[in-house]
Amino acid sequence: AGSGWLGNLSCVVDYLSAADCVWRPEPGSQDGNFTLEMVKKKVHRSCELRREVEIPAFSCRLVLPRMRSFQEYQLHLRRYRGRNVTSCSVDNYRPAHHIRPLAPGSLSAAYNKSSQLQWRTDPYNGMILNKQLLFELCYWPKDKLLEKKFKEVTTHHMTIEGFELQLNTVYVASVRCKPNKVDPYRGQWSTWSTECEWSTETDTGAGSPTRG
């Protein structure tokens, strides 16, 4: 966040090398061309902010080889109008506090009186971060989106007891993750994983991933 024409600027990182940034300017501050820079000593990366089509905002991706997530950077937002250049800055930006992990994968389910679901985390998140994630599983009867239920765990698997499910019903599930509020990592939920379908019929085998 910032003041003046800076408006609201947020950047979320994928832990290792990229920051996806969204800038929502104050009214009347959208004219001109804009760039965003992330700076620390010899590290200097920039990207051109491009106007979003569906929302009143600009966005770009900063690629930072060997990003040090625990260190602090400066963000510089620059506006170019003809020969006039103005800038606003955000100090003490720490990537470790703005992490959005990659979504879990390989979600599968099997039913035998209860439903056992399991998934994997993306190795790109890093070994340390993957041990400090909170997972949220969402599941619902197929074609009944209003009956969605949510459960949170810190493991890579979950059991849904039989009494929580309807018999002879096809279910759909998806899972997402975020840092588990354990220092030094903070952040937001990942996108949802690819969906998985399974049936609560006793003669049905393991569930399999479907297109999300």
From TrEMBL:
It is found in: Membrane. GO terms for cellular component: external side of plasma membrane. Keywords: Membrane, Receptor, Signal, Transmembrane, Transmembrane helix. The keyword Nuclease does not apply. One of its GO terms (molecular function) is cytokine receptor activity. PROSITE patterns: HEMATOPO_REC_S_F1. It is a single-pass membrane protein. InterPro entries: FN3_sf, Hempt_rcpt_S_F1_CS, Ig-like_fold. It comes from the Eukaryota. Its main location: membrane. PANTHER family: CYTOKINE RECEPTOR (PTHR23037), INTERLEUKIN-21 RECEPTOR (PTHR23037:SF7). This is Interleukin 21 receptor.
